[in-house]
Amino acid sequence: MEDTIIGKIKKQDARHESEVSKQTGFPSPATHYLEPSIDLNKELTQQKDATFYVRVEGDAWSQFSILNNDVLIIDKAITPRAGDLALVVEEGDFNVIYIPLSSSTHSFTLWGVITYIIHKVK
């Protein structure tokens, strides 16, 4: 069997360039109604440097509608008011409580005020 050289490979002269599609027909009436995307950090946080996200494991706080794998958005810069939901440290463990209406003998260290609870739907 012999190898026969037929010729050199030649570079193609014209090259096909893809183009942006050309619009045909009437323009969409909705093209002027474009909304910017939603930035959840901007919408859900007030103090960026004092905001923390905590993922919850377990259903120990279900009485507060906080379930397994929920995400708590906690702002440490907010001054707590009576009735605010807060993450506190009690006896070395994290706990969720409502800030009491009056000062009580209940001892805890405030870690931050819970501003949002993010639930997974499915």
From TrEMBL:
Domain of life according to the entry: Bacteria
Domain (Peptidase S24/S26A/S26B/S26C): residue spans on this chain: 22-94
InterPro entries in the cross-refs: LexA/Signal_pep-like_sf (IPR036286), Peptidase_S24_S26A/B/C (IPR015927)
A matching Pfam family: Peptidase_S24
Protein name listed in UniProt: Protein impA
Record organism: Patiriisocius marinistellae
